[in-house]
Amino acid sequence: MGRHLATSLATAIIAVAQLGFVTPSFAQSDEALEAARRVNISGRQRMLSQRISKAACFLNVGVSTDGLPNQMGDAVALFEGSLTALTRGDESMGLGPEQNVDILLALQQVTKDWNAFSQNFRMAMTNGFVPRPALSGIDESGLQLLASMNRTVNKTASTYGDALPDMPLILSLTIDLAGRQRMFTQKAAKEFCLIDAGVEVAENRERLAKTTQLFTLTLGALQSGMPGMVMAAPNDEIRAQLALVAEAWAGPKAALEHAANGGEINDTQRIAIVNAMEPVLVLMNEAVGMYEEAIPAPE
User: Fold this and answer.
1) Secondary structure of residue 44 in the 3-state scheme
2) Domain range annotation of the chain
3) Topology (CATH level 3) of domain 1-27+167-299
4) Residue 272 is inside which H or E element, if any?
């Protein structure tokens, strides 16, 4: 691994350390279980912000769009329901009303950013179509939402950290890096689509190259480990699952790198991103669950 690539991954790892970590699902106190749910639900919001932007863009490009309106609608509903639950509580999610003032303030900013973001794409939607001039505003407000959601995850994880069981820092970082891979799948697909749509092409090529590189480097680190930073796959089940992720990633990765390097995008590549990226997301999500099950229960 070159020095520049290693530095990029190390920077991502440091960012993850500041954002909190995916929490386990083994038996804990009721308070700790609720804390774990808050961290997990907050973390999932990051991926949803990019999933919505991605769907809006592909609705403009018009390739394999049959399921995109439903994908967008489901992501919107889940984000809104989760945001309400994190703030006011939701018995079905196992959450009571948030009591911490700092977290409530962070969630207020998320609500503000969500309102701006959702207004952008809802105003742009016309009979299931998003006009090209609206895509830049949707993306910009979606990235702002992602940033504020990152800060909320950080506050939630640090505030409720005392309620969670102790575990090695390297394991915490490894689990959260695995979880962040889900967001990268959606962010990369969105950046590919924006290039295809002719929206801020040079900037999105640069962003796409970085997002694709970070997913690839992180996947390699999860498989083989990085001393002092990332734990290698701790068991055969996770090792096999990450191999499936790598296999599924190969097709989309080639299309993403082609677009990032300035290549002309064709229908085969569009389909690879629209359709083949979903299995990568699903497989990576399953891998995160396996990491949680691998965490030892507190004595």
Assistant:
1) helix
2) 1-27+167-299, 29-164
3) A middle domain of Talin 1 (1.20.1420)
4) helix 267-294
> Does the pLDDT at position 174 exceed 80?
no
- 185-188: long-range pairs with CB below 8 Å, 24+: 185/215, 185/277, 185/280, 185/281, 185/284, 186/47, 186/50, 186/51, 186/53, 186/54, 186/277, 186/281, 187/50, 187/54, 187/211, 188/212, 188/215, 188/252, 188/256, 188/277
The token duo for 127 is 């009979």
196 near 64, Cβ under 8 Å?
A: no
- Give tens-digit pLDDT for 189-213: 999 999 999 999 999 999 999 999 9
272-293 pLDDT, tens digit each = 898 889 999 999 989 877 876 6
94 backbone dihedrals φ, ψ, rounded to 5°: 75, 30
Average pLDDT of the segment spanning 236-264:
95
| 32 three-class SS | helix
Question: Please, what is the angle between helix 101-124 and helix 135-159, to 10°?
Answer: 160
On whether the CB atoms of residues 60 and 129 are closer than 8 A, the answer is: yes
Instruction: Supply the pTM of this predicted model.
Output: 0.84
Q: Which fold has domain 29-164?
A: Four Helix Bundle (Hemerythrin (Met), subunit A) (1.20.120)
- Residue pair 217/8 in contact (Cβ under 8 Å)? The answer is yes
- For 210, counting Cβ atoms within 10 Å of its Cβ (0-12 exposed, 13-18 middle, 19+ buried), the class is middle
